[in-house]
Amino acid sequence: MYKILVIDDDMDICNLLERFLSKKGHAVKTAFTSNTALALIEQENFDVVLSDFRLGSTDGKQILQKVKEKSPETQVIIITGYSDVKTAVDVIKMGAFDYITKPLFPDEILLLLDKAIAKREELIGQADSGKSSPERESIANKNKKMFAHQNAHYISGISPQAKEVEKQIRLVAPTNYSVIIYGESGTGKESIAQAIHNNSARKHKPFVAIDCGALTRELAGSELFGHEKGAFTGAMHQKIGQFEAANGGTVFLDEIANLPYDIQVALLRVVQERKCRRLGSTKEIDIDVRIIVASNENLNEAAAKGRFREDLFHRFNEFSITLSPLRERGRDIELFANHFLKLTAEELNKNILGFSPEVLAVFKTYRWPGNLRELNNIIKRVTLLTDGTEIQLSALPVEISFNHKFSFNFEGGNANGEHHKPHDTKNNLKSVALNAEYEKIVETLEQVKFNKSQAAKILDIDRKTLYNKLKQYKLL
Question: What is the DSSP code string of 242-311?
Answer without folding.
Answer: HHHHTTTSEEEEETGGGS-HHHHHHHHHHHHHSEE--BT----EE---EEEEEESS-HHHHHHTTSS-HH
